[in-house]
């Protein structure tokens, strides 16, 4: 049985924040869940996916976040408790349905999880998604601990049903990827089948309907504001005159800070757990007893600006600050010592920092940047494209996935990356705006996510570039989730259809399509050369399963190669491929037999034929 | 109990996440509150993985610069890199078997000298326990048991509010059945190595 299906109310389990969120949903009887994988949210989906195979829960990996939200919207309006998970930038993709779903509302409780990533541990920006709640008019909850993540998730379904609106549950990486012991509550059996009651004058958002629905949304927001005023998640502790307003993980840093600074008695802490709508009256009342207030929130001055506005309305002139010089930054994440230092400075008490070590005499430590795995097929594809395009003036728009790492030298195959699917569409722009040869890269999962629309655009507008689809049979970056091109039968999962990328590409009207096996270097280079020479949109589909995935599935039987005495030590292999299986022993090139999987790309590019299989004795 | 802050640094694939899990489970058996957080975004592609484990009543689950009470390093250069987390009172435990970054492996950039790494850490912190944990893991039956060897050493410092029995129970329940015997042996070898290292300093 899956560990999240254990029905032992009161039991304590060590859970990852993301597991606690999944458990919270199960305790609320979630019946329907959709997602597109994205760190730091991925483990929520992974767990629900596994649970769905042992229960009535319906789960799907959708092609992108917009689709995931739309699918979920249907289920929620058929009355099911529904959850839709994504990382912060995913909500940008889903923003279109989000804004209007807020008008339409939901019947079954619906929770939209947004996993924000302050400090960008694995993201392209650090946007603060609290503004989405404000913009859409949807209630937002923000947990401060793993235990609370579980409880709040379950509560979010209740709140959603109470308001007939989706509720946005916002976490940050430090909730998603932290672990703690949590007390489990009882599981609730999901209501797996619902019914959609036709009601076009409330569901079909033509202008006349939407004009009314917007009124309804404002009424719902007013109800939500009332709930926020008395919400047990918006808590005040202490009754001092030094005010601290905080949310999420900052609350923990604040509690530690006031304890360590020994000012708990003098402070009054407002922890905001329901951050949209903010409890205006509660905050005004809170401010009334404060001498001065510090707002401690990662990201943007979301609460700071609101609290200042509330103070103005209440005619209060006390000092309220958060972001600013000597105070908190809008950049990156907070840490406990930073919060303690700023709290101490703001309230004029002495900080007691631990003495930092003098590290001036520590020699430079070589960096350890992430790298494409040994035997990763992307390396082979990048190499082949580079060879095929030798001498050309090129631009390489790249996309989001492991293969983004191809931008690193020596491959240097990435010139522009902004978001999922952008490689194809930006290639359209580059190819029109310049005389350079444009070669765009996109992964298979990303292609289905949002590359397809760009490709349709390119064909329709008769653009001129080569698109290389790196088809490694999985969503590698986020931990090997399936996508519509994956052969689910091979994973012993029935009931899915497999979409052939090649057939899709041909169907949208690309006439020059070639499928290559990237580990066959010469053939690949030839095929790519032909594609580059083609005028119009040409597509290369480079097909080879993700090596790490193949290894973990036991599909791959690694066969190591070695460098023989024929080696003349010019190091073309290392300098052009940078496969991490290579190392130098003294001055000689060697291959780490444990890391080498036997892709044999290096063996094919070695001009001396010096790289040969290790003979199995 | 007083708050105890432990940082674990490793290279992706060395098994530090499992080590954290075992520690967390042992803490539950000991009735000690524990909070952990980890950064493992790009870990499987050869990057650094860092876990923070906070035992006791503190609410934060990450550890600021200079605030670690114990630093447990799975890889010597990474231990050195994480010294910014330490202060004069920090106890440092490190494996001495290097995993050179790729740039170093191919001769670009130098790996710091192992003896020098140890001298530096010893001079700046309260105590250094350093030994080749990979060799001991192999002796216990599998290089993969490196993480458990280091847990043995960690326990030997006596700083954790956890007993050997509690940790062994956690190893039994949280690591794969087929490896339990290897792991228990690895645990003991790590414990003994730390004892020797402590005696010789
Ligand atoms: S996980 Fe797969 S796709 Fe990603 S770098 Fe490794 S082998 Fe390549
Ligand atoms: S490419 Fe071949 S000959 Fe050149 S260094 Fe590598 S193994 Fe030796």
Short overview:
Chain A has 22 helices and 23 strands.
Q: Which features would summarize this protein structure in a list?
A:
heterodimer, A: 617 residues, alpha/beta, seven-stranded mixed sheet, five-stranded mixed sheet, 22 helices, globular, B: 201 residues, six-stranded mixed sheet, 8 helices, 43% helix, binds iron/sulfur cluster
Could you characterize what this model shows?
The complex is a heterodimer of chains A (617) and B (201). Chain A has 617 residues and is α/β, with parallel strands linked by helices. In chain A, the strands form 6 sheets. In chain A, strands 3-2-4-5-7-6-12 form a 7-stranded mixed β-sheet, sandwiched between helices. A 5-stranded mixed β-sheet of chain A has the order 9-11-10-13-14, with helices on both faces. In chain A, strands 15-16-17-19-18 form a 5-stranded parallel β-sheet, sandwiched between helices. In chain A, helix 3 runs parallel beside helix 5 (95-104), helix 11 crosses helix 14 and helix 16 packs parallel to helix 17 (444-460). The model of chain A has no long low-confidence stretch (mean pLDDT 96). Chain B is of the alpha/beta class and 201 residues long. Chain B contains 8 helices and 6 strands; from the N terminus they run E-H-E-E-E-H-E-H-H-E-H-H-H-H. Chain B has helices at residues 16-30, 76-81, 102-105, 114-124, 133-140, 146-156, 164-174, 180-200; strands spanning 4-11, 34-39, 48-55, 70-73, 91-95, 127-131. Chain B has a 6-stranded mixed β-sheet, sandwiched between helices. In chain B, a hairpin with an 8-residue loop joins strand 2 and strand 3. Chain B is globular. Chain B starts with a strand and ends with a helix. The complex binds iron/sulfur cluster (2 copies).
End-to-end Cα distance of chain A: 43 Å
Structural class, judged by helices and strands of chain A? alpha/beta
Q: What are the low-pLDDT stretches of chain B, counting only 5+ consecutive residues below 50?
A: none
Average residue-wise pLDDT of chain A: 96
Quaternary structure type:
heterodimer
